[in-house]
Amino acid sequence: MPELNSKDIYKIAVVMGSDSDLKTLKPAIDILREFEIKTEVCILSAHRTPIEMMEYAKNAELENIKAIIAGAGGAAHLPGMLASITCIPVIGVPVESRTLKGIDSLLSIVQMPAGIPVATVAINGGKNAGLLAIEMISLFDESMKKKLKEFRETLHNQVRTKNSKLSTLGAENYLQNQ
User: Fold this and answer.
1) 68 and 16, same structural domain?
2) HSE value, Cβ hemisphere, 13 Å, CA-based, for 56
3) DSSP for 116-143, written as a single string
4) Domain containing residue 72: CATH number
5) Mean predicted confidence (pLDDT) in 7-27
6) Count of structural domains within the chain
7) What domain range is 178 assigned to?
């Protein structure tokens, strides 16, 4: 069986309810591109463009989208509405709000009724949303699994290096040398 090529076969969608959410979702876009995954980015509002949002969700599978990362703030209905229309995995990213610091967004996304799941990451957790989508892709793409393992090994080594530096310098000198 030939190995899949992410540039040609599939993509991940990054969807937001407003352009003000782009800053929160940029880390997801960046990590997906770092892993060379084709990424589609768009603005769709569950409240202001519901017809377009429904059409997008209905056609996502035909477009070979394998996961949808959806960021939303406040009432944060976008991830759940997308999940209600498609069987493609949806990862919700609660966007921090001024009023309730994103707790409203988090609760709105995480409290989906049984039968319509939305994976949910931390408030402003765009990078983890991207990494979760990459983990999903790695289930059927061995080259992506290899890249993910290398990424994790790099994280591991970075922490070990920092710990060694901290042990050598001590806390105060470590902070001064950053």
Assistant:
1) yes
2) 24
3) S--EE--TT-HHHHHHHHHHHHHTT-HH
4) 3.40.50.1970
5) 92
6) 2
7) 142-178
Tell me which DSSP letter residue 17 carries: S
Query: Does some domain include residue 78?
Result: yes
Structure token digits, residue 136: 């999903």
Beta carbons within 10 angstroms of residue 51's beta carbon: 7
Q: Are residues 128 and 61 in the same domain?
A: yes
pLDDT tens digits for 120-176?
Answer: 999 999 999 999 999 999 999 999 999 999 999 999 999 999 999 999 999 999 899
User: pLDDT (tens digit, 9 = 90+) per residue, 66-103?
Assistant: 999 999 998 889 999 999 999 999 999 999 988 899 99
Write the DSSP assignment of 87-99 as a string of letters.
Answer: -S-EEEEEEP-TT
User: Same domain, yes or no, for 119 and 166?
Assistant: no
Per the CB < 8 A criterion, the answer to whether 79 and 90 are in contact is yes
Q: Copy the structure tokens of residue 17.
A: 């309810």
pLDDT at 109: 95
Q: How far apart are CA 16 and CA 73, in angstroms?
A: 9
Strand partners, 14: 41, 69
CB 66 within 8 Å of CB 11? yes
